[in-house]
Design a protein that fits this description.
Order of helices and strands: HHEHEHEEHEHHEHHHEE
CATH architecture: 3-Layer(aba) Sandwich
CATH superfamily: Vaccinia Virus protein VP39
Structural class: alpha/beta
Low-confidence stretches: none
Number of domains: 1
Distance between the termini: 37 Å
Largest sheet: 8 strands, mixed
Number of strands: 8
CATH topology: Rossmann fold
Length: about 270
């Protein structure tokens, strides 16, 4: 089946609308990823910041503490359901491949675990560059290679084993997991001064059921597709993922250590 970007975006939007507040509630387990990205952004008081693919605005909310009253933080996402979870923030529902902001609008653009969900990542990166000021800074994070991200790959492996191929072809969320490939994409979008560093973090789960729920609370389009399965198949997946989790067993349940790449760059 050929890739349909419109259908893909529709599915992702529906999925993230569906998980809504659950995504925000589960974010504490991934707080260290947000902290690493904010540190890489080198925020300063008074700056204007765009949190792109913001979800419930976790990065924008934390950034405001540094930006202060003279700064500006805007959360932008394609999912209105996610943005509804952050009524305390300035919010703009938008497609990241066609942003409704003027050139040079921001000194900082953040994109936490979002780039791999843009069907045309070059269009998204060009938009990030366009809205950045000449002296601005982009800070983004992406999942590492599949074998280095058991937090997600464990569930995907179970789905591949238990289900037929998906009807909607999805770009791999690990396609920027190689640092050299990510650097090439940033260079193609006319960014320079590129720095990419791996960041490892661990998440604990008491049992297979809590891991599976944690995955559903993280995965937008995948969660939407799974929600359309018969209840018995959904329950079977939740039980069967224990087979994929065996390599990560510890005394208290399961511990999955994963890698993200944190990249920074500036407009050419």
């Amino acid at each position: 089946m050929s890739f349909n970007s419109t259908q893909f975006k529709k599915l992702e939007r529906a999925g993230y609308n569906r998980i809504g507040a659950r995504y925000q509630a589960a974010s504490a387990a991934r707080q260290s990823i947000s902290d690493s990205l904010l540190a890489a952004a080198r925020l300063e008081p008074g700056q204007r910041l765009l949190d792109l693919a913001s979800g419930p605005g976790l990065l924008a909310r934390e950034a405001r503490k540094t930006l202060g009253d003279d700064g500006l933080a805007i959360a932008s996402d394609i999912s209105e359901g996610q943005l509804a979870c952050c009524p305390d923030l300035l919010r703009v529902a938008a497609d990241g491949e066609a942003l409704p902001f003027a050139e040079d609008s921001f000194e900082r653009v953040l994109c936490g675990l979002g780039l791999m969900f843009f069907p045309d990542e070059q269009a998204a990166l060009r938009e990030m560059r366009r809205v950045l000021s000449p002296e601005g800074r982009l800070a983004l994070s992406v999942w590492g290679r599949a074998e280095d991200v058991p937090l997600v790959e464990t569930a995907l492996a179970c789905m591949r084993r238990m289900l037929p191929p998906p009807k909607v072809v999805r770009p791999s969320i690990f396609r920027f997991g190689d640092a050299d490939e990510l650097a090439r994409r940033l260079t193609s979008a006319e960014f320079s001064g590129i720095e990419i560093r791996p960041f490892r973090f661990a998440v604990n789960f008491k049992d297979a059921a809590s891991y599976w729920q944690g995955f559903l609370d993280l995965a937008g389009g995948a969660a939407e597709s799974l929600s359309r399965l018969p209840a018995e198949k959904q329950n079977e997946l939740a039980r069967s993922v224990a087979d994929e989790l065996k390599p990560h067993a510890v005394a208290s349940g399961y511990r999955l250590t994963s890698t993200v790449l944190v990249a920074t760059a500036s407009p050419v």
